[in-house]
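Extended Data, panel c. Modelled sequence:
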Amino acid sequence: MQSIVEKIKLSGVIPIIKLEEPEKAVKLVSAVKKGGISCVEVVFRTKEAPAVLKNIRESCPEITAGAGTVLTVEDAARAAESGAQFIVSPGFTYELAEWCAGKNIPFFPGVDSPSQIQAALSTGLSVLKFFPAELRGGVPMLKAMQGPFKSVQFIPTGGICTENLGDYMRLPNVLAAGGSWLIPDEAVEKDSWDEITAGVEKAVLAVHGFQFRHLGINSDNERQGKEASAFFDSLGFSAKETEISWFNGTDFEIMKQNGRGAKGHIALACNNLERALDFFSRKGFSADENTARRDGNGLTFIYLDREINGFAIHLVKK
């Protein structure tokens, strides 16, 4: 069974929900799920927040739902009673850390400095909210934190949007990103659920950052492959021979024999392969674990189990 942290990682984004009308909660999270995200954070600074969270947990059990902007143990207790699966606070306090640990509820406190990170680590926490992300140095700050705090995963929140989301998601120490930009107040007021779904879909693509890497072309034999490579070389796609193929520039890989796929393969680069495989699983694909390659940070290469019009698909990490 996946842990809450694993579910949040696969989601990649945590939309932050602020609702005054609990009856809209189910329609809202349904729109979010339709767009490809199955994790939400309910802001606990409105009187209706407990009812909103309770509606989500009771009607949408497939959604991972937590409580945010939790400032006190009393707030945390109300959130837990409403079904919160995780607790998020804008800052770190020992009281909240101890209470959540005692209740076995994942707690993600906000930090913005090395001393705060060390304080959180002293309580056994290793997943921390980085807030306010853009105002506290953003991507460069998180890169700087990779060295001294190798065991920490961050959830940057504050100033993040679809346009800069991919910059954060490429960092190995970013678990997911949080933000309220995915749930525009005006869209909620007008019941514009399709608008919210469309925005979520764009954010999901930004999380993955899919890019075409190269086209692999099968050959019946090495002679045929060499002739094809020479053709592309004559067009300015300089050939570089490897043990199994020729790379012509970065766009074409001419195989020396028939490789995977009836016609060849398509290589796609993305930010995180584990997260991308979860994305493709919802489209009916599975991973071919026999092709997996890994390093210290996880998967770096893997083929999917299905072809597209005769072309196998493999993923590579950016």
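The chain is about 35% helix and 25% strand. This feature is highlighted in the accompanying rendering.
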